[in-house]
User: Which sequence fits this backbone?
């Protein structure tokens, strides 16, 4: 499946070698496939290491639904691999077929560096767009885990990292404002990384990861200033945060705890053909600077191995991305004829029908002509984000707005950092008549750093502003244009961003009035399970939460604008749902909700 993590471990041959004397072994687990040349033990060890890293990510974020939008393939090899060097012999190569992390077994820290790449890619597919300090800190924190038998240690200072001296310390207010690490000098980058790790370590150790999510949401989605967002989410100033984080660096004792249990009894072993191994290693350079030469080699290899589905899949991708549709469809059809279980070939066939495009519908009757193959892809891999996205666009082109919204929302959930996906979702909301949600998603997509998306979002915002004004004029005249309703559509947590910004501005102005003192109650934290939810006709609600045997009643001022993490929307039907909650106490086992993270 596309959503699985592929791990090629202990490959002890040069990539250019044409000799495949030993039998390759593959170990398949819940998230990954680990490959080894003639060594099942090595493959199992590599699979266990990677599964443990993923399990630590799950523990830290309270997640059990980790997925990968693009398969990750990790090779332990001494061969030179073209790509981005990440240190200690580790190279990251991104391709449409998979993301390759290669490690060099002779380098003692190669697994630690590979772990950082794995955490980075896991974060990319399983957490909304965040700021550099958060991403860097999380990557170093999780990748730095140390295992010893059935125990693990988290929070130890990573190898090679040093806490900055006071004279070198970057004030956290400035650290949080840094959005582009390329602007940091070579001597300042290690300082940034060390402080980011220290901040995240303090956040996780103090049980404030959900509050960090609230901060990031306020700054990036609601337009709040860092100072305001920090006060609302952490109930402290940057001076307070700076002091507490620096104090915590003086107590760098790692936390020891039971390691996540990985049941290797369920690992499945199989033999891998030499021809499949050859294709996998060729994929490393097929989409890089040496791609044309590798393509010629693969075509020659295919002529001698015409019954190998893997080589046809690779050639299908290579020709389609070169806009050679005639050759691409030949290999797509051949691959499907040999083995139709691979979701990507059904997706590529739909793209071929759409003249090769993935972002714009190029043909009439797209839903009818592409829908069958895209649904086949999703049947084989429900987490195939690209297939869900293209299906949504096809449905939208056929004015199937409700199905399009569902498909595009699913895609943006699977790829939470893809600005293009949010822009397309905004278009679906616009088609549904929900101009506020469309406008807010356009703002969010435009701020994602993709220049093309930013330009398109600006153009759409200009056009939608005129529609919004016209809609307000119609409503003032008593005319309502309710051609579509959205009652049965799950809303993204990034909907209504502009409305939230406006509400924040009103709240800030109100808090400055003498008769309306600012709420100075401390933000507190609890974990438990939702027993029941009381929702009335008004937007407010009451959460009844069982925490350590006590029932808490938590008031929700407006369930439509409540900060929700880990779920698409506030659900009045929640029952026995594990949650992490930030709240402000109002009485004995009573409080007002600040944010909620659904853990199931």
Assistant:
């Amino acid at each position: 499946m596309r959503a699985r993590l592929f791990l090629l471990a202990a490959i002890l041959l040069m990539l250019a070698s044409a000799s495949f004397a030993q039998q390759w072994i593959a170990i398949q687990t819940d998230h990954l496939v680990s490959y080894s040349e003639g060594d099942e033990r090595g493959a199992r060890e590599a699979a266990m290491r990677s599964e443990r890293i993923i399990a630590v990510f799950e523990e830290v974020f309270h997640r059990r639904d980790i997925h990968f939008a693009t398969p990750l393939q990790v090779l332990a090899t001494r061969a030179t691999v073209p790509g981005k060097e990440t240190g200690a012999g580790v190279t990251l190569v991104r391709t449409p077929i998979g993301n390759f992390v290669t490690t060099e077994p002779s380098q003692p820290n190669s697994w630690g560096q590979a772990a950082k790449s794995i955490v980075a890619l896991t974060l990319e597919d399983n957490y909304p767009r965040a700021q550099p300090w958060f991403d860097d800190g999380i990557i170093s924190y999780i990748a730095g885990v140390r295992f010893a038998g059935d125990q693990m240690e988290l929070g130890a200072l990573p190898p090679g990292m040093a806490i900055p001296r006071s004279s070198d310390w970057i004030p956290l207010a400035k650290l949080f404002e840094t959005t582009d690490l390329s602007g940091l000098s070579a001597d300042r980058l290690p300082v940034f990384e060390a402080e980011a790790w220290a901040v995240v370590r303090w956040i996780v150790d103090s049980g404030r990861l959900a509050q960090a999510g609230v901060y990031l949401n306020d700054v990036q989605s609601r337009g709040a200033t860092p100072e305001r967002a920090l006060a609302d989410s952490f109930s402290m100033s940057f001076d307070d945060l700076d002091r507490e984080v620096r104090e915590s660096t003086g107590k760098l004792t790692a936390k020891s705890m039971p390691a996540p249990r990985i049941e290797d009894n369920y690992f499945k072993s199989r033999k891998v053909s030499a021809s499949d191994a050859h294709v996998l290693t060729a994929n490393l350079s097929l989409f890089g600077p040496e791609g044309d030469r590798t393509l010629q080699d693969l075509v020659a290899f295919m002529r001698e191995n015409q019954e190998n589905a893997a080589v046809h899949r690779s050639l299908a991708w290579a020709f389609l991305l070169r806009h050679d549709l005639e050759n691409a469809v030949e290999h797509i059809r051949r691959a499907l004829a040999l083995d139709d279980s691979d979701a990507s070939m059904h997706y590529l066939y739909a793209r071929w029908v759409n003249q090769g495009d993935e972002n714009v519908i190029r043909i009439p009757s797209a839903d009818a002509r592409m829908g069958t193959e895209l649904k086949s892809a999703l049947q084989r891999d429900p987490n195939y984000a690209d297939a869900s996205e293209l299906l949504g666009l096809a449905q939208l082109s056929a004015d199937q707005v409700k199905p399009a919204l569902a498909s595009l929302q699913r895609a943006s959930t699977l790829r939470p950092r893809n600005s293009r996906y949010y822009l397309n979702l905004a278009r679906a909301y616009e088609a549904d008549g929900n101009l506020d949600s469309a406008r807010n998603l356009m703002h969010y997509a435009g701020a994602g750093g993709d220049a093309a998306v930013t330009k398109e979002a600006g153009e759409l915002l200009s056009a939608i502003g005129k529609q919004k004004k016209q809609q307000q004029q119609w409503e003032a005249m008593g005319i309502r244009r309710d051609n579509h309703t959205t009652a049965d559509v799950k809303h993204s947590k990034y909907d209504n961003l502009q409305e939230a910004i406006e509400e924040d501005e009103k709240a800030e102005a109100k808090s400055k009035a003498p008769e309306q003192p600012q709420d100075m109650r401390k933000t507190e934290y609890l974990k438990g399970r939702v027993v029941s939810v009381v929702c009335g006709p008004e937007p407010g609600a009451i959460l009844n939460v069982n925490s350590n045997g006590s029932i808490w009643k938590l008031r929700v001022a407006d369930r439509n604008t409540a900060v929700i993490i880990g779920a698409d929307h506030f659900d009045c039907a929640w029952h026995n749902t594990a949650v992490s909650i930030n709240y402000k106490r109002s009485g004995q086992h009573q409080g007002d909700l600040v944010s909620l993270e659904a853990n199931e």
